[in-house]
Amino acid sequence: MAIVIPVPLVAGFSHRSGKAHIVRVSDREIRAHNGRVGELCLQIARQLGMTASEQRVLARSGLLHDIGKLALPGSILHKHDPLDDSEWKLMKTHPEVGLKILQWAGHFERALLAVLHHHERMDGSGYPHGLVGDAIPIEARVVAVADMYDVLTSDRPYQRARSEQEARRLLKEEAGPHLDPVIVSALIASLDAQRPRAPRASTSPYFGGRRRLR
Ligand SMILES: [Fe+2]
User: Fold this and answer.
1) Which domains does the chain have, with CATH numbers?
2) Rounded CA separation 212/207 (Å)
3) Phi and psi of 117, rounded to 5°?
4) How far away, in angstroms, is 175 Cα from ligand 1 center?
5) Is CB count within 10 Å lower at the N or C end of the chain?
6) Is 69 annotated as catalytic?
7) How far is the CA of 119 from the centre of ligand 1 (A)?
8) Active-site choice (69, 79, 92, 100)
């Protein structure tokens, strides 16, 4: 059953009480990131030739993937320095917390697989379950690619945004060991398709050489 939750109003989860509650997604950065990742997921889904309903699932997967971060303190979310071990431990809980938030809010759809598994990596080095290759749900593999691209091309508290070219290079490096290479290729093809095309040399005798129509 698909339930539309209004964004920015969503369910939240308190680490302290262990209880879910309704919160407002007031963190502008998380909201903007989730929105961009949702859009990128949609582009990838279209590029992969997915059906309209699969595209909707992918868009929602991107939109919801980091919802578990709402339970993290701002001191971690906005920290300029690298996270220490205990902060990383807390950060790595956000996929499972996100799953609990959405289940509590009545969501039982495939987008939940992306929420739980978007930090899994193809070689099994990811979290929370260390899934390998195709065992990682397709929704999560798509979000992982879109997420990395958006993180690389956005200003973050701990790093400046990279150029699009640099982001593409880094994505290609990650394709295989960490990211699904088919999905990386789909994102790059989609980005290429959006680029304004350079005017091509005309084969018309009227537009070649010195002869031009006025
Ligand atoms: Fe995440």
Assistant:
1) 28-193 (1.10.3210.10)
2) 5
3) -115, 10
4) 18
5) C
6) yes
7) 6
8) 69
CA of residue 65 to ligand 1 center, whole Å: 6
Residue 12's beta-bridge partner residues? 21
User: To which H or E segment does residue 21 belong?
Assistant: strand 20-24
Helix then strand then coil, in percent of the chain rounded to 5, is 50, 5, 40
Three-state DSSP at 11 gives strand
Express each pLDDT in 95-113 by its tens digit.
999 999 999 888 778 999 9
Backbone torsions φ then ψ of 24, nearest 5 degrees = -100, 135
CA of 206 to the centre of ligand 1 (A): 55
Confidence of residue 89 (pLDDT cuts 50, 70, 90): very high
In angstroms, rounded to a whole number, what is the distance separating the alpha carbons of residues 88 and 149?
21
pTM: 0.80
d(C-alpha 9, C-alpha 11), whole Å: 7
pLDDT of residue 213: 34
Closest CA to 3 of 112, 97, 95, 94: 112
Q: Which of 45, 174, 43, 60 is nearest to 109 (CA)?
A: 60
Rounded distance from Cα 147 to ligand 1 centre (Å):
8
